[in-house]
């Protein structure tokens, strides 16, 4: 055997495990786990205040991941920790607090969910307006078509509540908080990025502290001794946080922020499938048609960005 060849083969770095999984499979898992958060929030309302469940979900994830991330965190500089903590506050505390507090103040859940589903448009507007990046017209068209599909799916659940006028801005602020965190994470220099598990631990840790401050001002932080409360916490900690947020950040490493967010246009119909399975809520042809319309919009976004990536990859070879 040629020793030089052997040395070259053994010196090649192994790709991260998630690069071995096709991106569409990761995106399908993201849809399943991300939509589980809305179902978990609905289930938990009957057993505990929304922010209390969110607080304990952060505590559970923080305790579970600590043994696996302690060494990596000790080796990380304070500057890197602060930057990732800021991303975590925006992505988790800002997003979840905006949505849940808006609903708690009387904003209808369907309307709050629709505002949260504006994330792809929020990201596109920030990308074009703040980062000065030009998006192809096909991407804008796909985003608008996807939003139309979401509106078809959620139309039956839309209504105006009795919340104070300013409370309707909380879900919008929550959506913008996640959009800013997404772009911050996407364009963070590699030297300032954490691994997936340390990143999740840090985000849950700082968000848990934020939720503790907010919830302690309204009541006790003690867990409620009921099976429903335990199931709510474990469901949202495992599926929604470790699954949903973990896969969100993984997909963001593999694709553009616009693509990852546009895929979430299918979250409302997937959520309604969860609700049909778990709560026996009815399905309708309007929901199915809305899902199909959103699918067309996502296909347009994904196809356009794929063609642009291939074109950019071929340019240096000319």
Word description of this protein:
There is one protein chain. With 318 residues, this protein is mostly helical. The chain has helices spanning 3-11, 23-44, 50-74, 78-104, 109-116, 119-129, 137-154, 169-186, 196-216, 227-254, 257-263, 267-279, 285-314. Helix 2 (23-44) runs antiparallel to helix 10 (227-254), helix 3 packs across helix 9 and helix 4 (78-104) crosses helix 9. The longest helix has 30 residues, at 285-314. The two termini are 37 Å apart. Keywords: Membrane, Transmembrane, Transmembrane helix. Belongs to the EamA transporter family. Residues 30-154, 166-302 form the EamA domain. It is found in: Membrane.
Count of individual helical segments: 13
Provide the residue-averaged pLDDT: 84
Question: How many distinct beta strands?
Answer: 0
Distance between the termini: 37 Å
The quaternary organization reads as single chain
Q: Which sequence of SSEs, written as H and E, runs from N to C?
A: HHHHHHHHHHHHH
Coarse shape: globular
Describe the biggest sheet? none
Number of domains: 1
Radius of gyration: 21 Å
What proportion of the residues form beta strands (DSSP E)? under 5%
Estimated structural class: mainly alpha
Question: Which range best describes the helical content: under 10%, 10-25%, 25-40%, 40-55%, 55-70% or over 70%?
Answer: over 70%
List low-confidence stretches: 3-13
Domain EamA: 30-154, 166-302
Membrane topology: Multi-pass membrane protein
Subcellular location: Membrane
Transmembrane segments: 20-41, 47-68, 80-97, 103-127, 139-159, 165-184, 196-214, 226-248, 260-277, 283-302
């Amino acid at each position: 055997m040629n020793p030089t060849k052997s040395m070259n083969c053994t010196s090649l770095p192994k790709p991260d495990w998630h690069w071995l999984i096709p991106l569409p499979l990761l995106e399908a898992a993201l849809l399943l786990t991300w939509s589980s958060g809305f179902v978990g929030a609905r289930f938990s309302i009957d057993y505990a205040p929304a922010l209390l469940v969110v607080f304990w979900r952060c505590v559970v994830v923080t305790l579970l991941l600590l043994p696996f991330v302690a060494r990596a965190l000790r080796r990380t500089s304070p500057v890197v920790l602060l930057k990732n903590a800021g991303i975590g506050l925006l992505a988790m505390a800002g997003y979840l607090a905006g949505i849940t507090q808006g609903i708690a103040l009387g904003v209808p859940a369907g309307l709050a969910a629709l505002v949260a589903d504006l994330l792809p448009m929020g990201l596109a507007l920030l990308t074009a307006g703040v980062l000065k990046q030009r998006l192809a017209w096909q991407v804008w068209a796909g985003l608008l078509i996807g939003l139309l599909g979401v509106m078809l799916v959620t139309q039956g659940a839309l209504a105006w509540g009795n919340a104070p006028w300013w409370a309707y801005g909380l879900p919008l602020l929550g959506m913008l908080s996640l959009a800013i965190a997404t772009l911050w994470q996407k364009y963070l220099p590699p030297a300032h990025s954490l691994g997936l598990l340390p990143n999740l631990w840090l985000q849950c840790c700082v968000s848990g502290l934020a939720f503790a401050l907010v919830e302690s001002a309204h009541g006790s932080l003690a867990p409620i001794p009921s099976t429903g409360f335990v199931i709510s916490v474990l469901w949202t900690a495992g599926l929604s946080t470790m699954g949903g947020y973990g896969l969100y950040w993984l997909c963001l490493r593999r694709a553009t922020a616009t693509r990852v967010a546009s895929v979430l246009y299918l979250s409302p119909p997937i959520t309604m499938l969860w609700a049909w399975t778990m709560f026996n809520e009815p399905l309708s042809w309007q929901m199915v048609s809305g899902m199909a319309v959103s699918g067309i919009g996502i296909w347009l976004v994904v196809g356009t960005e794929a063609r642009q990536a291939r074109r950019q990859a071929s340019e240096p070879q000319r």
